[in-house]
Amino acid sequence: MPAAAKLIPIVKIPDPILRQIAQPVDEITDGVRQLLDDMAATMYDAPGIGLAANQVGRLERVIVMDCAREGDAPELWKMINPEIIASSQETAKLEEGCLSIPGHNSEVIRPAEVQVRYLGIDGNIHEMQA
């Protein structure tokens, strides 16, 4: 069972790990669960709405995110081996920031909707429309 979550230092640009490809997770261990718990604590503390393992110096394909609107209850997602399996032709432009590039925001154009498949910490495959 994972220990209490702890904060992890966030890697900043130009650290080369930020451009490396994270490796798929083969087994959901207590270490993976601990990493996700630590990443969530780090993301909330920063504060941010998403964090990938590369951003804390790890090359494991895991992310955490919480896109709940301000004032709403948190909606933490812990995703293992996430992949976009479909995206809309329609696009949306939003202002985004990155915890690894502090103080910088830019308008980014992305698909308006995506369908994502991932493993949950329960070991089951999940899909979400976002």
Task: Please outline the helices and strands.
Blueprint: H1 30-45, E1 50-52, E2 62-65, E3 77-87, E4 91-98, E5 101-111, E6 114-119, E7 125-129
Antiparallel strand pairs: 1-2, 2-3, 3-6, 4-5, 6-7
Record keyword descriptors for this entry.
two-stranded antiparallel ribbon; globular; mainly beta; 130 residues; five-stranded antiparallel sheet
Structure description:
The structure is a single chain. This protein has 130 residues and is mainly beta. 12% of the residues lie in helices and 37% in strands. It has one helix and seven strands; from the N terminus they run αβββββββ. It has one helix at residues 30-45; strands spanning 50-52, 62-65, 77-87, 91-98, 101-111, 114-119, 125-129. The strands form two sheets. Strands 1-2-3-6-7 form a five-stranded antiparallel sheet. β4 (91-98) and β5 form a beta hairpin. The longest helix has 16 residues, at 30-45. The radius of gyration is 15 Å and the shape is globular. The model has no long low-confidence stretch (mean pLDDT 95).
Summarize the structure.
With 130 residues, the chain is mainly beta. The chain has one helix and seven strands, in the order αβββββββ.
Using only C-alpha atoms, the radius of gyration works out to: 15 Å
Distance between the termini: 30 Å
Order of helices and strands: HEEEEEEE
Helicity, as a percent range: 10-25%
Percent range for β-strand residues: 35-45%
Number of strands: 7
Give the spatial strand order of the biggest sheet. 1-2-3-6-7
| Number of helices, where a helix is a run of at least 4 consecutive DSSP H or I residues | 1
Overall geometry comes to: globular
